[in-house]
Amino acid sequence: MKLKYNTLSDKKDLIEGVILKKLTIHKDSTGTLVETLRKDWNDVYRKGKTPFAMQYLSITPPKVARDVDKWHVHKYQKDRFICIAGRIVTAIFDPRKKSKTYNHLNLFLMGPEVEDEMYLLVIPEETYHGFIVISKISGYLLNFPTKLYNSEDEGRINNTQLDWKSVRDDFFK
């Protein structure tokens, strides 16, 4: 692999404000249960600072990158991603000039099949982000944003910091 990818066991050089929350997976003969957001998780949920506003599911086909030529960005909202099926790489770029991690890029391997890749990822406001499905099946992504959808908070920025082709080359030969 040409690029560096983060998982739960590799939290080095995380962009300021990014949080990885290990999820507990309960399995038995009747199936699997994973708690995805709890109000007692003070690192990812705080009523005044990181409240719960809504939840949605996106389903993306294999090899497809969301926001491939333009990054996704929110001025006021944090996103909280969990990949519940398939496997994805979530990219976060930090354009915040006052941040300790200004100009850093993180790439996160996410999916339920590998314990080290099953976590909740908090994406800070004003950071650029997108993801690509790297599995042979569609990627199912849950998001628990801190604000209700607001088109005025939603932005798109030209992506000059990451060539998704490099990520595709690492996983699809």
From TrEMBL:
Origin: domain of life: Bacteria
UniProt xrefs under InterPro entries: RmlC-like, RmlC-like_jellyroll, RmlC_Cupin_sf
Protein name as it appears in the record: dTDP-4-dehydrorhamnose 3,5-epimerase
Site feature (Participates in a stacking interaction with the thymidine ring of dTDP-4-oxo-6-deoxyglucose) residues: Y149
Gene Ontology BP terms: polysaccharide biosynthetic process
Native organism taxonomy: Bacteria, Candidatus Curtissiibacteriota
A UniProt-annotated Pfam family: dTDP_sugar_isom
Gene Ontology MF terms: dTDP-4-dehydrorhamnose 3,5-epimerase activity
GO cellular component, one term: cytosol
